[in-house]
Amino acid sequence: MPKRKAYLLRIPPDLWEEISRWAADDLRSVNGHIEWLLREAVRRRRAPGRREAPPTPPRED
């Protein structure tokens, strides 16, 4: 199995709760659900027929 990159993610508690409920509904772990969400976003971004990339949101560091 290929190595995975560990990454610390800080998210607001309300977003965590929403993702946690969504993951439970889909019988996934929160980590697995976040990975699925990211893969879906990348897949949609690469989809044929897409006109242009959306504007990049400002970073909140």
Main beta sheet strand tally, sense and closure = none
**How many extended strands?**
0
Low-confidence segments, given as residue ranges, are none
The termini sit apart by: 33 Å
Encode the helix/strand succession as letters: HH
Mean pLDDT rating? 88
Helix/strand-derived category reads: mainly alpha
Instruction: Name the shape in a single word.
Output: extended
Indicate the radius of gyration in whole angstroms.
14 Å
Helix tally?
2
Beta-strand fraction estimate = under 5%
Q: What is the helical fraction, as a range of percent?
A: 40-55%
Describe this structure in words.
The protein has helices at residues 13-25, 30-45. The protein has 61 residues and is an all-alpha fold. The protein has a domain at 13-45. It starts with 12 loop residues before the first helix and ends in a 16-residue tail after the last helix. The model has no long low-confidence stretch (mean pLDDT 88).
In short:
With 61 residues, the protein is an all-alpha fold. It has a domain at 13-45. It has helices spanning 13-25, 30-45.
Descriptive keywords:
mainly alpha, 2 helices, 61 residues, 48% helix
Produce the secondary structure layout.
Layout: H1 13-25, H2 30-45
